[in-house]
TrEMBL record:
It comes from the Bacteria. InterPro entries: Aromatic_CoA_ox/epox, Ferritin-like, Ferritin-like_SF, PaaA, PaaA_PaaC. GO terms for biological process: phenylacetate catabolic process. One of its GO terms (cellular component) is cytosol. GO terms for molecular function: phenylacetyl-CoA 1,2-epoxidase activity. It comes from Lentzea albida. This is Ring-1,2-phenylacetyl-CoA epoxidase subunit PaaA.
Length: 307
C-alpha cells in the first residue's frame, strides 16, 4: 500500500472527512459521483410530481408553501451537483448522463400524483424516508457531501412536517377528504419503502460503501427505522398502513412488516415505471427551454473576462 493509500485508510478508520484535494482511490471517487449524482438528479426530477399541483393547490397559503418547498428541492439539487463538481465532474456532464438515461434517480418519483392528498403524503412519507436515509449521510466520509446534507436535512424536516400538517388538516375534514388521504397512503406506502434500495443481500454496493464510510447504515436497517417511525405517526393521523403483516415484535423491539414487490422496484429502476418516460421527457424539455439562459450566462461571463 502506498503512503497516500495508507493515509486515506487511516482517515476513514478515524472517522474523519476526506476532502476534495486529498488522494482517494478511483473506485471511492466513482462511487461518490454515482451516489451524489443520483441524489442530485432525484432532487431535480422530484420537483415534478408535486410541482404539477402548485397552480391547483386550494388556497394562497397552500400554493405559497408548495412553491417554497419545490424551490427548496431545486436548491438541494444544486448543492449536490456542486458537491459532485469537487470530485472533478461537471454539472453539465451529469445532466447529459441523466438525459441520456445513463444515470439513475430515485424510483419514487416515477409514481403519479393524481390527488391533492399526494402532496401531503409525499411530504410525510417520501420526505420522511429521505430524512431517515439522509440524516446519517451528514456523517458520510466525503466532506462536501456531508456538509451539503446538513442543510438539506434541515429543510427536508420542514417538508416532512408540512406534509403531515396537510394530511392532519384533511383528516379533520370531511369523510371524502379522509378517504382521499387513505387512498393516497395506500399508493405511496410501498414505493416509499423501496426508496431505501434493494434488500441488503441484493445490494451490490452496500458493503463497500459502508467500509468507506460513504453509507453509514444498510438499506434494510434504514427501512426498519422508517417503519418504526411511521407506525405511530399513522396511528396519530388515523390512517391504516396497507400492510397486513405489520405488527409489533416485542422481542426485537421493532415492527415486523411485509416486503415490497421487488419485481416492481427493479422494473421502475430500469425505466419501466408508470411515469419514467414522462419525467425524463419533461426534464429534457425544461433543459432545452433553458438553453438561452445558459447561452446568455456564458456570453456574459466572456464579456466580463474581456473587460
Ligand atoms: N431508486 C432508484 N435506484 C435505486 C434505488 C431507488 N430507490 N435504490 C437503489 N437503486 C439502485 C442503486 O443506485 C444501484 O444502481 P447502480 O449501481 O447502477 O448505481 C442499484 O439500485 C443497487 O442498489 P444498492 O447497491 O443498494 O445501491 P446504493 O448502495 O447506492 O444504495 C441508496 C442506494 C440507498 C439509494 C443510496 O444510493 C443512497 O443513500 N443515496 C442517497 C440518497 C438519495 O439518493 N436519495 C434520493 C431520494 S430522496 C429525495 O430526493 C427527496
Amino acid at each position: 500500500m502506498t503512503e497516500l493509500a495508507e493515509y486515506f485508510e487511516a482517515t476513514i478508520q478515524r472517522g474523519d472527512r476526506v476532502e476534495p484535494r486529498d488522494w482517494m482511490p478511483d473506485a471511492y471517487r466513482k462511487t461518490l459521483v454515482r451516489q451524489i449524482a443520483q441524489h442530485a438528479h432525484s432532487e431535480i426530477i422530484g420537483m415534478q410530481p408535486e410541482g404539477a399541483w402548485i397552480s391547483c393547490a386550494p388556497s394562497l397559503r397552500r400554493k405559497a408553501i408548495l412553491l417554497a418547498k419545490v424551490q427548496d428541492e431545486a436548491g438541494h439539487g444544486l448543492y449536490l451537483y456542486s458537491a459532485a463538481e469537487t470530485l472533478g465532474t461537471s454539472r453539465r456532464e451529469l445532466t447529459d448522463k441523466l438525459l441520456a438515461g445513463k444515470q439513475k434517480y430515485s424510483s419514487i418519483f416515477n409514481y403519479p400524483t393524481p390527488s391533492y392528498a399526494d402532496v401531503g403524503t409525499i411530504g410525510w412519507l417520501v420526505d420522511g424516508a429521505a430524512i431517515c436515509n439522509q440524516v446519517p449521510l451528514c456523517r458520510t466520509s466525503f466532506g462536501p457531501y456531508g456538509r451539503a446534507m446538513i442543510r438539506i436535512c434541515k429543510e427536508e424536516s420542514f417538508h416532512q412536517r408540512q406534509g403531515y400538517e396537510l394530511l392532519m388538516t384533511m383528516m379533520r375534514g370531511t369523510d371524502e377528504q379522509r378517504a382521499m388521504v387513505q387512498e393516497s397512503v395506500n399508493r405511496f406506502w410501498w414505493p416509499a419503502l423501496m426508496m431505501f434500495g434493494p434488500p441488503d443481500d441484493a445490494s451490490p454496493n452496500t458493503a463497500q460503501s459502508m467500509a468507506w464510510g460513504i453509507k453509514r447504515d444498510t438499506n434494510d436497517d434504514l427501512r426498519q427505522k422508517f417503519v418504526d417511525m411511521s407506525v405511530p405517526q399513522a396511528e396519530a393521523l388515523g390512517v391504516t398502513l396497507p400492510d397486513p403483516d405489520l405488527k409489533w415484535n416485542a422481542e426485537r423491539g421493532s415492527y415486523d412488516f411485509g416486503q415490497p414487490d421487488w419485481d416492481e422496484f427493479w422494473a421502475v429502476v430500469k425505466g419501466d415505471g408508470p411515469c419514467n418516460a414522462e419525467r425524463l421527457e419533461h426534464r429534457r424539455k425544461a433543459h432545452d427551454d433553458g438553453a438561452w439562459v445558459r447561452g446568455a450566462a456564458v456570453a456574459f461571463a466572456r464579456l466580463e473576462e474581456e473587460l
